[in-house]
Structure formats: C-alpha cells, structure tokens
C-alpha cells in the first residue's frame, strides 16, 4: 500500500507573512490527515513557513534547487542551504521550469541525484503538452521523461522519489485530465519505471497534477494508480486544500 501524498505548489505566490498566515489557517484543517501533506513554498518564504509549520504534520518543500554543491552560480540555491532551513521535499523539473528556465531531462536527473544525496524527497514532474498529446507518442514521451529523471538512481533510493504526472494542458487551465486519463498515464509511467527497477516501481508514489481541486479530487484519488496530487491554485486556499487532503486520506484503509 502506497501512502498518498498531497503537496501544494505555491509557485510565485505568497509573501513570507502571507505564507505563514496560510499555513496557520491550514494546520487545524489537515491535522488528522492519513496521507502525507506538504507545502512547497518560494525560497524566501522558507524560514517563516518552517516556523509556522513547527509541531504540525505538514512537510516543508522547495520548488527548485541547484545540483551543484556550491560556487559561482549567481542567484542559485544549493541543497545544503535548503537543508539548514529544514526543507524535506523539493519539486524538480516542473513544466514551467522546463519551459521558461531551460530545465532539461539532463539537469532534472542531476537535481534528482543531488536531492537524494541531501536526503530530500524529490517530487519530479513529467508531462506532455497538448500538441504532443494530439500528435501522438505522448506515452513514450512521459515514459522517457521518467526514465531520464531516474537514470543512475540506485534501486534502494528510487522508492524515495515521488513522480508527479502533470499534463501541461491541464496546468492552470481548469481543464483536468479525466480520472481515467490520469490513471492511464500514471500506469504508463509506473510500467516504464518497472522496466528498469522491477518490483520497486510498485512502491514508487506517482501523483497527478493539473487543475486538481476540491471538486475533482475524490474521483482522481479513487483511481488505483494515483497516489496523490501536486496542487497549484487550489493549494493557495486552506479550505480547498484541506478537502483534497481529506479525499486522499479517505483512500487510506
Ligand atoms: P494548478 O493546480 O494550478 O493547475 O497547477 C498544477 C501544478 O502545476 C502543480 O505543480
């Protein structure tokens, strides 16, 4: 049984004080969660978020990191910097970073390895665009993205990774993948991972992300392959986020 994981990706929203207020509103609403609950906040929000999260059941994540340990990389943030602030999770290879900041399968793979070395749980994003889905071959594309992200990761470490299937056409569009579409894509990713890691792929948690909200979470979470969600817009509203957490909790026996 894979423990579901619901993670909020705040993206470039919330100042430190706004973020702390959101966490304080969220804490009592998710206190009884049976799934893992995480908030991935902007870098500068991390200290305030860590303080607000103290004593709660909510994990702390970042939205990116550099794969180099240190050095002349102006504007970048290392794993050690995040670790010292109490970060436990890090989103890697979000489609917005692939599209706007030249993230590639190669940099994603380097970041996954650096995150695992630091003891973080990487949340690795894969997913196809609308053009890629309509052109055909999207199944191979997402399988290849997942395999590339995990290239060279040791079998013992691979189950620590979380993959998020986020079809780009569903992100921020209000157009969710159907329950069946999301389940099918996640099964494809799991099969691809099993080709390299065998039965370990059954332990790997794979989330869905893309306009997941309080209304559609229950249907998505009822799917056998879907182990949680990576939530953008709806993670900025404590009541909505807590309904999604409750939907994931309800699947835990
Ligand atoms: P939305 O939930 O706003 O569609 O964003 C999804 C996402 O990109 C999470 O990483």
**Percentage of residues in strands:** 15-25%
Unreliable segments (pLDDT under 50, ≥5 consecutive)? none
Overall pLDDT confidence? 97
Question: What's the story with the biggest beta sheet?
Answer: 8 strands, parallel, barrel
Strand arrangement in the largest pleated sheet: 1-2-3-4-5-6-7-8
Structural class: alpha/beta
How far is the first residue's CA from the last residue's CA? 9 Å
| Backbone shape | globular
Q: Any overview of this molecule?
A:
- This protein is of the alpha/beta class and 253 residues long.
- The chain is built from eleven helices and eight strands.
- The chain has helices at residues 16-30, 46-53, 79-84, 95-100, 105-117, 130-135, 138-150, 155-158, 179-197, 217-221, 238-249; strands at 5-9, 36-40, 58-62, 89-92, 121-126, 162-165, 205-209, 228-231.
- An eight-stranded parallel barrel has the order 1-2-3-4-5-6-7-8, surrounded by five helices.
- α1 packs parallel to α2 (46-53).
- The longest helix has 19 residues, at 179-197.
- 45% of the residues are buried.
- The model has no long low-confidence stretch (mean pLDDT 97).
Q: What tags apply to this protein structure?
A:
single chain, 253 residues, alpha/beta, eight-stranded parallel beta barrel, binds 1,3-dihydroxyacetonephosphate
List the helices and strands and how they pair.
Elements: E1 5-9, H1 16-30, E2 36-40, H2 46-53, E3 58-62, H3 79-84, E4 89-92, H4 95-100, H5 105-117, E5 121-126, H6 130-135, H7 138-150, H8 155-158, E6 162-165, H9 179-197, E7 205-209, H10 217-221, E8 228-231, H11 238-249
Parallel strand pairs: 1-2, 1-8, 2-3, 3-4, 4-5, 5-6, 6-7, 7-8
Helix pairs in contact: 1-2, 1-11, 5-7, 7-9
Bound molecules: 1,3-dihydroxyacetonephosphate (13P).
Residues 9, 94, 166, 171-172, 209-212, 230-234 line the site of 1,3-dihydroxyacetonephosphate.
